[in-house]
Amino acid sequence: NNTSNEITFVATLSFDRMHALEGLFAKWSGPISLALYLTDAEAARFTEFYDSSPVLKSRKNVGYHVVFKETWYYPVNYLRNVAKQNVQSEFIFLCDIDFLPSEEIESKLSEYLVLIGKSQPNALIVPAFESERYRIDSLPGTKADLLKQLDLGEIIKFRSRVWEEGHGATNYQKWRSSTKPYKVNWQLNYEPYIVTHKSIPDYDQRFVGFGWNKASHIYQLHRQGYRFLVLPNVFIVHLPHSPSIDIHRYRTSSKYRQCMETFKKEFMTEIDHKVKASTDHTSLI
Questions:
Q1: pTM score, whole prediction
Q2: Which of 208, 168, 223, 209 lies closest to 192, judged by CA?
Q3: How far is CA 274 from CA 223, 280, 282, in A?
Q4: Strand boundaries in the chain, DSSP class E
């Protein structure tokens, strides 16, 4: 049963990320839609894990959508679409499984849902940070706590050491002192985590493995006229984990990176043509 201001947390995961579920459930009490990429054997082990976890078994508002493995690369955008398309609430939080939300995030997000709109679609950005600490109880819960750890270097802006452009447009310096949502402009390779209406376009499924899978979605929203509004009093913190196989492939294979760049250019050209065609059609009416 969904209320009008419920928000569903949407994410994907493989078997090696199962350990993240109980921590997430402790932070997010609302509905969750998960797409799991598993082999037959892993699906059986997940059932055992579920049956042995009082935390998982106590939840009645979590959808587990199993997609069985059949490709070499992690089909991240296909999985995101599966999880997104099975949401029943009006609003969704498009996130990743390795993040933990700040305290009282659901009630705070609900206050901003009125900003999403339909005539002028908006995407609400939840600023992302990362920690090198594995203990959940050491992570900041409030903005005040986070700013202290940020100043001490215990928390940093998400991926700021390796991919500044991915989240730089969020304008973290402004966020530190902000008390109201503020608009930011799209920049190339921007890939924030967003709260929006479930009618948002699907992800492009040609992007598999690591690289531009989320940035492509944000680019599409940008070209379709979505505004990006950064929220002032919520955040998520990424927990450390070993690099995925797909990240290793991206970093070590020049052919992989060349293919990703080709997909990126093709996708941007296609979106630009669709937007132009739509604009030309509208101007003729």
A1: 0.93
A2: 168
A3: 10, 10, 12
A4: 7-14, 32-38, 62-68, 91-94, 99-101, 122-126, 128-131, 155-157, 182-184, 193-197, 227-230, 236-238
Q: Distance between CA 213 and CA 211 in Å, rounded?
A: 6
6: nearest Cα among 88, 84, 120: 88
Q: How far apart are CA 221 and CA 271, in angstroms?
A: 10
Q: pLDDT of 182-211, one tens digit each? A: 999 999 999 999 999 999 999 999 999 888
Short-list 167, 145, 282, CA closest to 225 = 282
The C-alpha atoms of residue 100 and residue 129 are separated, in whole angstroms, by 10
- Distance CA(176)–CA(238), nearest Å, equals 18
Q: Residue 264: how many CB atoms within 10 A of its CB?
A: 18
Tens digits of residue pLDDT in 152-188: 999 999 989 888 999 999 999 999 999 999 999 999 9
Q: Are 200 and 221 in contact (CB under 8 A)?
A: yes
| Cα atoms in the 13 Å half-sphere on the side-chain side of 233 | 12
